[in-house]
Amino acid sequence: MPGTPAGPVSTRVILSAADIDRALTRIAHEILEANKGSEDLVLLGIPRRGYPLARRIAERIAATDPGFDPATGLGQLDVTMFRDDLRRNPARTPQPTRIPVAGLDGRTVVLVDDVLYSGRTVRAALDALVDLGRPRVVRLAVLVDRGHRELPIRADHVGKNLPTSSQEKVRVRLRETDPEPRPAEHADCVVIEAPAQAAGA
Question: Could you list the residue ranges that cross the membrane (predicted)?
Fold first, then answer.
């Protein structure tokens, strides 16, 4: 897999389950503040891990603002067929796109993803949105911004800014998508994998 360290790998936990909970709660409040409430708000998670993160943010928004209903304000946006690396990664499996019944026209759409890196996934998401409606505004929320942008894309809501080297791999592990056994405090976690030699340098 491109970007996966070869040889011995050193793994460091950067965010624990509690850290992720706090970050998502803060992002939920930031979204409400930026939107001045929950009116016409839609969260669209980008598979795979962006959707469960969007669902958790939606639950927090609903707990703060009872006017927000996750059933009508939460969806999933698959960007597979809009990516510019399909020739290099043809094995990507499309996931279903689910848009709220009220649609996206005139609404505030917050795209949610786990890691912001080159910006190419977000560019694909913006292209996908063109086929689905015309939102009033589109914002971006990510759990981790690791830098190394290749396109002029910036997140509006960030759980953690995480400076990394290009040799490192940032992995988000969530209960919903990564059910392998882990300690309870790391049931959800963000880790950095790096070549062992680089990590010890």
Answer: none
